[in-house]
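ZP: hey, is the magnesium ion complex queued? I don't see it on the tracker
AM: it wasn't, my bad. submitting now with these inputs:
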Amino acid sequence: MEYSLHFGAVWASFDRLLSGLAIGLALAVVAVAIGTVLGLLAAFAAVSPYRPLRSLAGLYVALIRNLPLLVLVLLAYFALPQIGIALDKYQSFAGALALYSGAYLTEVFRAGLLSVPKGVIEAARSIGLTRLQTNVSVVAPIMLRNALPSLGNTFIGMFKDSSIAAAIAVPELTFEARKINVDTFRVIETWTVASGLYIAACVVIAALLRGLERRFPKF
Amino acid sequence: MNKPQPLLAIRGLTKQFGAVEVLKGVDLDLDQGDVVSIIGSSGSGKTTLLRCVNLLEEYQGGDIVLDGETIGYRSVNGRRHRLGDRALSRQRAMTGMVFQSFNLFPHLSAAGNVMLGLRKVLKLPKAEARAIAETWLARVGLAARADHYPSQLSGGQQQRVAIARALAMNPKLVLLDEVTSALDPELVQEVLNTVKGIAEDGATLLIVTHEMRFARDVSSRVVFMEQGRIHEEGPAAEIFGNPKSARLAEFLRNTRH
Ligand SMILES: Nc1ncnc2c1ncn2[C@@H]1O[C@H](COP(=O)(O)OP(=O)(O)OP(=O)(O)O)[C@@H](O)[C@H]1O
Ligand SMILES: [Mg+2]
């Protein structure tokens, strides 16, 4: 069987792949930003002394983590409008990915919270910081620094999962690659280039995150 | 003659952990400027007593009165209720605590550690908080280390930052719990000298320590705790030179060598 490589047709549409990459990154950034807030709230709830809050956090994590992301995305895009919540495809995907990443980050942050030394928290309380002030000024920064590597991994994971947005025709990298594939029949070339872009983006993100980790003092 | 009311009055303090009674009715008074050391064997309740005074622990019976204010609880129709977070926080700010394990905020510089309470609790502007922090760091001999992070400081330096952090809040009373126990031997003296310095400046200190010579040196009074009670108390010279109870004499014999 003969297959001669011709990248020309793919390069001709390279700008579409790049814009797809940018859309995927933007979706991941928005989703992880919202997911970080959700994860922080849920993690604090998960370790709070109030049982209803703990249950709520547990329910959130259990529900979301036991759903495939694709199902969550389809629910958000097709099912929500049925009950009067109409989101466009970007909003529904970003929302679904935010919920999804939030559930994973809840576990990351919960572990981070448990890693904050009890004595340090008591030191904050002993100089008169309220519980809220202690959480904001002491617990959260320590926990975030400890959670930074996991936060980075989650971000990379969510960026790769942005390919699932292709299922609801969000023109991100996978969606564009599939279109180019269909238009040009350059199967190997298209998917090789798309894969190269995913890998390159992830390597760059990982390097940036390592740089960020180094900027913060080690404890 | 009327004795002025003590700065700190602990009355009949009892504390249980589950079914275990750890404090069995402790009474202790401190006047302004007093330096009182608590000695006693491991498990006698020294740390627990300090933690109750700093409101880090709840207690089941008795009262703690700080500068005329009963702290930690309020009585409604004869029933005790723990105060809410805000009130407890305000009362905690009136006492400083220095911990055995330093417990510095690892994400903040030495100055940042001292400034946090000044900014968040006393609501001082940043420049003023920084100035106070620098003054106190200089006072504990760490003027040049203001911008170092805890991980860049020795144990002795960390503990001196912790002392500066507690004192910068201008507390009525400072609690020190075995502040040199976690230190390498060669670092103990610098911390003890710092504590001695603040004692000489007139701070009111309640010190738990295993450093008998230090206790003898700085204390106006020494308290010997045994099994959740104050077993004997008196001037340092009396406690160390002329113990009345056999138990204290035995404790001192066992700790001297
Ligand atoms: N959080 C806790 N839960 C249950 N029991 C506790 C707790 N903290 C302390 N205890 C118990 O209370 C008793 C008094 O402890 P505490 O730490 O006050 O003693 P201490 O006099 O400070 O001892 P040391 O000299 O070893 O520091 C001990 O029997 C200890 O096991
Ligand atoms: Mg102790």
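AM: back. The two ends of chain A are 59 Å apart (CA to CA).
ZP: great, adding it to the tracker
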